[in-house]
């Protein structure tokens, strides 16, 4: 869910929260479900009408524990999603430079580093820094939050000499003897900063709720915030039964005022503050909704002020945002009880030294835990036939190996659910052309659940949506799980066509749509890479399938007819073995082939769950990503792996290393992990919590170190 906690110490807690939120059994959703009907968004006629509708819906969905705040308050701060893709490679007259790896060209996404080729702008530990690319010196520093809140997750968006810093309230101190939760008393803050001289704070927009995501087109930013009703539930009596607690909470809902639901915000500028609430006339709702949350879309023009455009709200849940130049899509599943929030950083699958029988068939065991293996594999590896195969090591949903594994998370038993809700995802589309408030267009529904924003793609008047149905969140995939791609008319969001039955007994691990072709990776013990022909929206079809060991968690287009996959190698039993980067030949959609694979044992990369951390620079064929060795101590420093990608092979070009940090175990310290790689001219810039290293792009030799003091 971006804009998220992406630190090694945070991942274990994030995984526990995900387990707590998702322990209930997923209900079946028939793949032949009638999806021809639309889900209308309806505006309220007045506040009385709105209050009656919200009270009635919330009363049906409240539990004896309220709205799940005890579980969800930290999960909101662990939000993110996932995710990812080829950024539009821009250039300035002085020198070429990379940009944030985004899903759609021309639609920017928040990230912790931005560059225009002349300067590098970084937000870390509550501080914004501006670095001059020519002199390689910090030219401006601005502390945005107090030091005690410096671990709150933050990202940026930039337009010209204006930056918008998106700071989430709450967070987890990632290092030291124990990770500590720092809940925020307020919601997220969005800070407008002037970069024309020394960085200067121009104003702050504070919102009630939790940050979901944001998208920028031109200088206009759309921010999506999710809020829950502010209802004070009575403390349970010592001898109260669950039925008594539920009755008391329902009574609290029935008497709550309209102000409990209306999202609040505050704008501070030039020493003056203004508070406001979304008006009842600016709130819409689907025909069915839970009344337990509200989605609010704020519009900010970075060239103007923070509050020039009034916000709008929808009475719906939501966790995934996808944007194009003209449309903003927000997805929700209002019937999913305690549905888990997307999490960028997640706890590691336990990494054990594999036995000989665990090693994947086409990868020879390395002689050192950190040794890399470059492989030109056979085209296919098929699972064993005949007899029962060994039970796979469970790979939880939204779980990727982390920088500092701490063992398997304990499963938390969630609060009981009153019903077993169907798996389906509602999709709401808003028109965001122009700089004014978004305009609602239409809504639709598909079976199953999304993986992340890359499960959505708009092309040639249609929206493609990839989902998995019946997949258990923890404990491995359900035997009846399968995935599908649904094609919707982008104007009405009514279904046009569908292809289902992908990866039976598995779930989706990555999705990529490129023009009229779709790529879907599912995994349990092997990784089927499916290629889909989407030229006929009414009859999408699978044209090819490639089975290999391991899985790709992120897919990135390379040169024509080539696709890069970043994920984990795995044994025949499904046990993950370390980071792998694969090069696929997809020139013939009917015959996808694995050309080359680079595998490094006992390692993981942030790029697996946050592709903003991945950089592919086609001008030189270099691919870069942070890499963490599970057997190394984080105090010893961090590294970024640099690979050379040709038309037919992946080879290691070298490694860029950052220094470690010799701090005390009981004192929070900056994260020494390399987080991002940036290309400016003939140099590579790698960014960690300790500073920025500048390296020669051709030789990777050090050219300078810029410490964050």
UniProtKB/TrEMBL annotation:
Keywords: Signal
InterPro entries documented for this protein: Beta_propeller_containing
Pfam family, one: Beta_propel
Signal sequence residues: 1-26
PROSITE patterns given in the database record: PROKAR_LIPOPROTEIN
Region (Disordered): 341-426
Protein name: Beta-propeller domain-containing protein
Organism (species): Microtetraspora fusca
């Amino acid at each position: 869910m971006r804009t998220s906690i992406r630190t090694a110490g945070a991942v274990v807690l994030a995984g526990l929260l995900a387990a707590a939120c998702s322990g209930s059994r997923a209900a079946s959703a028939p793949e032949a479900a009638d999806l021809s009907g639309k889900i209308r968004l309806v505006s309220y006629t007045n506040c009385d009408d709105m209050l009656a509708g919200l009270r009635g819906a919330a009363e049906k969905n409240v539990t004896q524990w309220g709205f799940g705040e005890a579980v969800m308050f930290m999960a909101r701060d662990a939000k993110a999603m996932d995710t990812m893709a080829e950024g539009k490679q821009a250039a300035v007259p002085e020198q070429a430079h990379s940009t944030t790896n985004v899903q759609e060209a021309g639609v920017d996404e928040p990230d912790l580093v931005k560059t225009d080729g002349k300067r590098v702008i970084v937000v870390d530990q509550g501080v914004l820094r501006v670095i001059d690319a020519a002199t390689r010196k910090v030219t401006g520093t601005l502390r945005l939050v107090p030091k005690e809140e410096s671990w709150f997750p933050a990202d940026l968006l930039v337009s010209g000499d204006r930056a918008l810093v998106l700071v989430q309230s709450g967070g987890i101190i990632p290092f030291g003897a124990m990770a500590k939760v720092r809940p925020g008393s307020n919601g997220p803050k969005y800070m407008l900063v002037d970069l024309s001289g020394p960085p200067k704070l121009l104003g702050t927009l504070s919102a009630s709720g939790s940050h979901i995501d944001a998208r920028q087109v031109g200088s206009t930013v759309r921010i999506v915030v999710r809020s829950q009703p502010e209802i004070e539930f009575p403390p349970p009596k010592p001898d109260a039964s669950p039925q008594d607690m539920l009755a008391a909470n329902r009574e609290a809902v029935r008497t709550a005022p309209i102000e409990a639901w209306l999202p609040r915000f505050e704008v501070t500028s030039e020493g003056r503050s203004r508070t406001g609430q979304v008006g009842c006339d600016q709130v819409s709702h689907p025909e069915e909704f839970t009344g337990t949350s509200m989605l609010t879309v704020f519009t900010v023009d970075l060239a103007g002020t923070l509050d020039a455009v009034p916000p709008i709200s929808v009475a719906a849940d939501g966790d995934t945002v996808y944007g194009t130049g003209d449309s903003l899509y927000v997805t929700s599943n209002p019937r999913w009880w305690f549905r888990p929030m997307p999490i960028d950083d997640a706890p590691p699958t336990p990494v054990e030294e594999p036995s000989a029988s665990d090693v994947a068939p086409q990868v020879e065991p390395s002689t050192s835990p950190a040794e890399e293996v470059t492989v030109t594999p056979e085209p296919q590896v098929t699972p064993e036939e005949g007899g029962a195969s060994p039970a796979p090591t469970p790979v939880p949903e939204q779980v990727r190996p982390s920088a500092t594994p701490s063992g398997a998370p304990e499963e938390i038993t969630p609060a009981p659910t009153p019903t077993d809700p169907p798996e389906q995802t509602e999709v709401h589309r808003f028109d965001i052309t122009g700089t004014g408030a978004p305009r609602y267009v239409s809504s639709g529904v598909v079976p199953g659940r999304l993986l992340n924003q890359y499960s959505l793609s708009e092309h040639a008047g249609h929206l493609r949506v990839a989902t998995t149905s019946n997949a258990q969140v923890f404990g491995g995939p359900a035997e009846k799980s399968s995935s599908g791609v649904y094609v919707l008319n982008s104007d009405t969001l009514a279904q046009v066509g569908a292809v289902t039955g992908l990866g039976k007994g598995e779930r989706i691990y990555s999705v990529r749509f490129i023009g009229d072709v779709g790529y879907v990776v599912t995994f349990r013990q092997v990784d089927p890479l499916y290629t889909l022909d989407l030229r006929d929206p009414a009859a999408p079809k699978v044209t090819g399938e490639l089975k290999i060991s391991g899985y790709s968690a992120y897919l990135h287009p390379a040169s024509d007819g080539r696709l890069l996959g970043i994920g984990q190698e795995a044994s025949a039993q499904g046990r993950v073995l370390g980071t792998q980067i694969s090069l696929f030949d997809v020139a013939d959609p009917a015959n996808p082939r694995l050309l080359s694979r680079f595998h490094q044992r006992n390692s993981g990369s942030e790029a697996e769950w946050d592709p903003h951390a991945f950089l592919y620079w086609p001008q030189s064929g270099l691919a870069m990503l942070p890499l963490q060795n599970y057997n190394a101590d984080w105090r010893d420093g961090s590294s970024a792996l640099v690979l050379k990608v040709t038309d037919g092979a992946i080879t290691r070009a070298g490694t860029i290393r950052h220094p470690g940090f010799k701090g005390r175990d009981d004192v929070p310290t900056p994260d020494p992990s390399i987080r991002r790689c940036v290309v400016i001219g003939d140099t590579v810039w790698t960014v960690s919590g300790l500073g920025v290293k500048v390296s020669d792009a051709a030789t990777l030799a050090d050219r300078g170190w810029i410490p964050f003091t």
